[in-house]
Amino acid sequence: MEITTVAIEEEVKQSYIDYAMSVIVGRAIPDARDGLKPVQRRILYAMYQMGLTPEKPFVKSARIVGTVLGYYHPHGDQAVYDALVRMAQDFNMRYPLISGQGNFGSIDGDPPAAMRYSEAKLSKVAIKMLEDIEENTVDFIPNFDGSTVEPALLPSKFPNMLCNGSSGIAVGLATSIPPHNLKEVCSALIELAKNPNISTEEIMKRIKGPDFPTGGIVENYQELIEYYHTGRGHVRVRAKAHVEKLQGGREQIVITEIPYQVNKAELIKRMAELVREGKLKEISEIRDESDKEGIRIVIELKRDAQGQKVLEKLYKHTALRKNFPINFVVLIDNQPKQVGIKELLQEFLRHRLEVILRRAKHHLKKAEDRLHIVEGLTKALEHLDKVIQDIRSSKDVPQAKEKLMKNYTLSERQANAVLDMRLQRLTSLESSKLEEEKKQLIQSIEHYKKLISSEEERIKVFIQEMEEIVKEFPSPRRSFVLGFENEEVGQITVIIYSNGKIMPLEEMQEEGQVVDVLDVPFSEGLFMVSNRGRVYWIAGSQALQGSKVSFKEADESVVGAFVRSQASHRIILITKRGYVKKIPIVDFEYKTQGMSIIKFSEEEDEVVKVLQSPEEGDILLLTRKGKMLRFPIRDIPPATVGSKGVIGIKLEGDDTLISARAITDFPYLLLITQKGAVKKINAKDIPARGRGSKGMTATARTKGDAVDIVPIKESVELMIATQEGKVFYDRLEEREIPLKEVQRWSIDEDIITRVAVKKAQ
Predict the structure, then answer these.
(1) Which of 168, 207, 539, 574 lies at a CB distance of 3.0 to 4.6 Å from 660, suitable for a disulfide?
(2) What residues are annotated to the active site?
(3) Computed over its alpha carbons, how large is the radius of gyration of the chain?
């Protein structure tokens, strides 16, 4: 045996490099294409092989871990289970790849249950990672003992690398990629596919920044553009919190979201320590009121303490404000590389185009093979009687096969298919089915050949896939980004639905009837009044990612909303049966969620409209049948929370009150009907009458019942919602609308149900 002498320092150096690369490639750093580390990839593939798809029952985690260890991952069982658990935690993964049942840990740092107690299966998102894996879309490599094979990476239709992010510490380097919003990532990918020369700045117009599963507010958007270009930097994120006023003038701070990967229990513990050390003397009590609805940490303050100043102290001294590192280190061609966000997107795009190409080649081969068989069957059916005679006259199968191949110029595979053909395929109907199949196969082959020969066609397929995945997994942004597109700092435009859903305007979905569109500062309170006369509120910060009112009754719905700082001192409630009630806001603000603020004068009555009450001016009431009544706002007496309203308009027959507007200095009004007609009315032509009168007729109802009446000066921008859930915008110029009823919108069989003013001048 030959012995080679090697300097010890060289051997140590080489061994260390080998070890380092093993850790980098085999454990700590994700692949840029599917965004997975080997253990994660092996877990997902093993679960796919086990048939643990979303529609199937959960199975014990221990069974999954055992399968992964036995076939793919020759390491410790705890390492596998830890990776499985993390992929199921919705506070760690923006889009969990595993659905868990049982205890999978908590944001308080509670450990998960042992693997013999918890259960798991693949999530719907994970299926998108594995889709087409059996169609030769990726390479397979031998497993650790050569007994089977495993995928070198996943097809990954879902852009997991950026959407879920990754973190890991290897030898000599580390990676830290924050999660992002699926809709934004897909938008950037589509734009990159259309324009390969897109800049990082243009990408960042589509990807605002990180979108953490725990929400929070990203503060350094302008810096992020440079960090995303180089792949190094940090995201400064702070908790979402607001100050609430209590009875007696005291205040309390309510925290509804905390920064990503902050332990809530440790955060509260740190706050308590600061109170004991005397650094936060203003705090009298800290309560954790979090539940399955979300995080809610309440910090009660002593009298005369200013909530905003205390909140700034908390941001400074606790993890309520935190820097999350950005370090885009990924594996590209099995080598670690520091990249910017454009390169990450390019790697995913390159991977998906390769998957689409390989899939097309796979399908082409299958289609050509099938066409070959169909052509043989068709040829045999054309000479059916002779074929039957040849088969019957043969002494055995080999002789029959030989006759078919010789007499009808069939290949061996075609001859076998003819011999295997069942008698039912001899009918004329089956023959026509074969002809139809042949035609479809020829079309498919042309399509696959086109995909294989043209990258442009593959890009079209990629764009279509990204559009489909966004539709399948709608995901409103959770983290608010300050300063994006010069937005007013600390304010967001939200859309409010009757079902209690509040969404950022840009994330608008078909959630139901639209009630209003408001600009909400996230440090302020957004108040909503229901049809049952109850008041609810949320912090503006909760509206940044979307929120929902928890009604006290099943039949409740939002009918009006206002921002506290933008409201006048009083609001007016309008009821269906014609009653009005003026109530001071201080009587109910920040007191009890779901507090009733009106006692109805008649059974079956409900609130239909809420408007702010100016000190002077008139109120205009509108009924479903187009009756209008104008009278001074001062004629409505101020009332207490528990009292009834007073009669506003005397209704006739089955007519109902549907809307109201405060009229101050608006010269014109627009009456809008269900069928899309608009009638401009001069405010001077509506005489003021006494409260409780019948009112005057405003429309002949030729274009449907009245829906709303909108004050207008020079122009008004409206958002129109219909019964079928459609929403559209229209800017109406006062000078372009005649003083008569005109058809403004064509809505076919649909009807308009709600009108919200976006902007009035």
Answers:
(1) 574
(2) 117
(3) 34
